[in-house]
Amino acid sequence: MSKQRTAFFISDGTGITSEALGVSLLTRFEDHHFEKVTLPYVDTVEKAHETAAKINAAAERDGAKAIIFDTIVQDDIRKVIKKSAGLMIDIFAAFLGPLEKELGTQSSYNVGRTRITKNTRYDERIDAVNYALDNDDGARTKLYDQADVILIGVSRSGKTPTCLYLAMQYGIKAANYPLTEEDIEDQKLPKSLKQHRNKLFGLTIEPERLAMIRHERRANSRYSSIKQCNYEVEEVELMYRRERIPFMNTTHYSVEEIATRIMVKAEIVRRC
Amino acid sequence: MSKQRTAFFISDGTGITSEALGVSLLTRFEDHHFEKVTLPYVDTVEKAHETAAKINAAAERDGAKAIIFDTIVQDDIRKVIKKSAGLMIDIFAAFLGPLEKELGTQSSYNVGRTRITKNTRYDERIDAVNYALDNDDGARTKLYDQADVILIGVSRSGKTPTCLYLAMQYGIKAANYPLTEEDIEDQKLPKSLKQHRNKLFGLTIEPERLAMIRHERRANSRYSSIKQCNYEVEEVELMYRRERIPFMNTTHYSVEEIATRIMVKAEIVRRC
């Protein structure tokens, strides 16, 4: 058994990128156990010293160097951390050189400029989140003109989280409409959806998984029975095929994977 | 004026990490204009060849090498892309060597294992999203026992998107409760919140910004007037101080920044 190591994901921002990157690199070392620590907002030299102290303490305890993944932009902050007892996966140091050479310019850092970009993105995304909430679960169909995409599917097939993710990450306005038993029995697309046919994207899910999810909401009901789930899933898939609506099976995917795959399949362009 | 370049963010997954990383590196070259292209799900050698063709076409058009940021795990896919007309910021190639040396093992890649981890995470996050939706806007207060955090603040101070982000990204169960004019006039914490005092986190916002946001919802109303916004913000901030509730001003931050800062300040531990 190999020693335990501590992996630090450090950033001057939220730490989300350095963590995602670090985890994907560490996944390739499956025989090792990594204690994972994310430290966001290390944005001053003082905080860098505190961080270095944490790294040193972990290395001392583990009896082995820590592994450090960082996406800190400022050189002076990064230098302090580099002196601690860790192997630093220093992305900026490694790649700014080759980039400068290729682009034929020195790199710079201008805080102000990034901030402005962020605020525009923020507004677009909040608008999109509000749109998703207002147009969730077929609550309204009047605003479908504004939608970038309308997700359809049976109850609990993953529509709402996917809409919210599309909004939050890409500023995409995503409405969703639950296909009810009535819609299924009619064997045709509800009227409010017909005129927006080119915006529709269907979700489907394995009946066993659907029954499990529904069971948590309403145990031992007709709604959560495998028979009912089988019926609904089979019928909506038939409808998708008949109406030539693009669709995907969400069973084995995470929310971000579902969202990204829909964008690719439906050729939706991000808003921000 | 420097030439336009095309920047490619390529991944065998969603592309979110390589994009975030690439953008933060490119921000340091503000004199350049980059046409940005994200290509997710490049997970076969065949798709790698298609991708290489796109890169070559962009380089031909720009009259300059493309810049490629990739987080593709499989070596054979990465090698195909490396042969295209781009400068490849090849994170795996750069850092697997030093990691192998430090850990004293060869790296491997096992698809199956990552998948399992993802599914657990998925369930936790979907549960948390459903929790956030069910406990949004003070809809219910019975389930506050289950909450990891309860965000409070005046209407439109950013509670809902923040709760959803905490759920989606970290699996944190976040409820939110809007402080109404009634609560403010009473000058005390609503009863349903009192017993969960240690879970409360306050949001505040600059009155000018609040008025702008409210104006979009209900133009020229008392609700969106600067006078009303000033009053509400001033009073809730007083309440936060009096009741010793930790709080932050959301005005200049993106949703992910607000969420991450709350986690740090309130010492909330992520669920996944």
Assembly form of the protein? homodimer
Secondary structure tally: strands of chain A: 8
- The structure class of chain A reads alpha/beta
Mean pLDDT of chain A: 90
The coarse overall form of chain A would be elongated
Rg of chain A, please?
24 Å
Tell me the span between the first and last alpha carbons of chain A: 46 Å
Biggest interface pair, residues each?
Answer: A-B, 68 and 68 residues
Summary of the model, kept short:
The first copy, chain A, is α/β, with parallel strands linked by helices. Helix content of chain A is 50%, strand content 15%. In chain A, the strands form two sheets. Chain A has a four-stranded parallel beta sheet with strand order 2-1-3-4.
Describe this structure in words.
The structure is a homodimer of 272-residue chains. Chain A has eleven helices and eight strands. In chain A, α9 (207-217) packs across α10. In chain A, the strands form two sheets. A four-stranded parallel β-sheet of chain A has the order 2-1-3-4. In chain A, α3 links the parallel β3 and β4 (86-90). The model of chain A is unreliable at 110-117 (pLDDT under 50). The first copy, chain A, is of the alpha/beta class. At the A-B interface, α1, α4, α5, α6 and α11 of A face α1, α4, α5, α6 and α11 of B.
